[in-house]
Specification:
This protein is α+β, with helices and mostly antiparallel strands. The chain has helices at 11-23, 28-35, 39-51; strands at residues 55-58, 61-64. The protein has a two-stranded antiparallel ribbon with strand order 1-2. A hairpin with a 2-residue loop joins strand 1 and strand 2 (61-64). The mean pLDDT is 94.
Length: 65
């Protein structure tokens, strides 16, 4: 079972975090398609998760830090 960090409070932030926890490192396109979210929405969510140190980006893929 995946535990959410205390700093992840928004529903969409939780959704992205859990998606990454279950799918591993993925590209933005995978997130858009897998979560049925627009890229513009993902940018702010991923930015907040990265700033908080929960997510990292390497080689064009996002993964949990």
């Amino acid at each position: 079972m995946t535990t959410l960090p205390d700093g992840v409070s928004s529903p969409r932030g939780k959704l992205v975090y859990l998606y990454l926890a279950t799918h591993g490192a993925v590209r933005e396109d995978d997130l858009c398609e897998g979560l049925s979210m627009k890229r513009i929405s993902l940018y702010s969510i991923l930015g907040a998760l990265r700033e908080a140190g929960h997510v990292e980006k390497a080689d064009g893929r996002y993964a949990l830090a």
